[in-house]
Amino acid sequence: MKKLATVGVVALALGGTVLMSPAAQAATALPATGHQTAYVQRGDTVTVYRDGAVKAKVTAVSSAHPGGDGKLVLTVETKKALSFSAGDWLWEDPSGGDHEADDANRKISVPANTTKKVTIDYTGVGNGDVIWAPGLKTVAGAWYVKGRTVTGASELLPASYVQRGSAVTVYQAGKAVAKVTPTSARHPDGKGTLKLKVEALKKFSFKPAGFVWEDADGGDHQAVNGKKAVTVKAKTNKTITVKYTDVADGALFWSPRADVIAGAWKIG
Questions:
Q1: Where does the secretion signal sit in this chain (predicted)?
Q2: pTM reported for the whole predicted model
Q3: What domains, with CATH codes, occur in the chain?
Q4: Which residues are within 8 A (CB) of 237 and not within 5 positions of it... i.e. 6 or more apart?
Q5: 48-101 pLDDT tens trace
C-alpha cells in the first residue's frame, strides 16, 4: 500500500520540550472556536476525538477471505455515541483495486459507553489492505490484511491534528511530534500579524499558507509569502510571525491539507 495523503489519492490508489498546559495556554493564546472531529491511529486502534476529548476507539480485530468472501471484524468502544457507514471501509487488493462493503449503505451506530463487535462483509477480496475513510472525505486509519491477521499501518497515514483548547497537537504515526498555538492576531489599519508558538518534540515543518484569516463576512485572506516552509528543530520552541493584508476581526483556520481543518480560532 502506498503512503496515504488525501482521500482523493486514496480513492485512486490508495524528550525534552515541555508542552504548555491548557490553563497556561488560555492566558496567552487565541480562543478556540467551532467543533472538530479528529482521528489518531496507534497500532491497530483509531481513537476518535470530538473537540479534543476521546469520543470512541475503533480497533480492527481480524479478517478472513476464504474463496474471496471477505469478513472484517471491528471492536468499537464508545464514550459518546458513534455512527459510521460500512461503505467508509474499503478493502484494497495489492494491485490497487478497491472493494466496497457488500452493504455499503449500512449505517452502524454504537450508543455511548458501549463496546460492540461489528462485522463488515466483502466479495472478491484477498490479502491486501483496509482503510477507513469517514464520509470518503479524510483518512482515519489503515491496516495490512494477511489471512486472518490485521495489522495497523499508521506509518502510511498523513499527520493527524487534535485541537485541545487553543493548542493543536500534531501526531505522526500515532505519536505527538509538535504543538502549535496561535498566541496573538493583531490587525492595525488592516495589516495583520499572527504569532504562532511552535513546540517541537521532533523536527517539524509546515507552511504558513495553511493558516487562513477569515473576516466576519466570510472573506478569506492568505498569508503573505506563506508557501515557504518553516522548520522547527526537535526539542525546541520557536515563535513564527505570519503577515496578512486587508484583514479585520473574524476567525483563523489552519488547513495543512485539503481534507482536514487542524484548528480554528476566534480573532477579536
A1: 1-26
A2: 0.89
A3: 7-14+37-156 (2.60.40), 160-267 (2.60.40.1240)
A4: 17, 197, 198, 199, 200
A5: 999 999 999 999 999 999 999 999 999 999 999 999 999 999 999 988 889 999
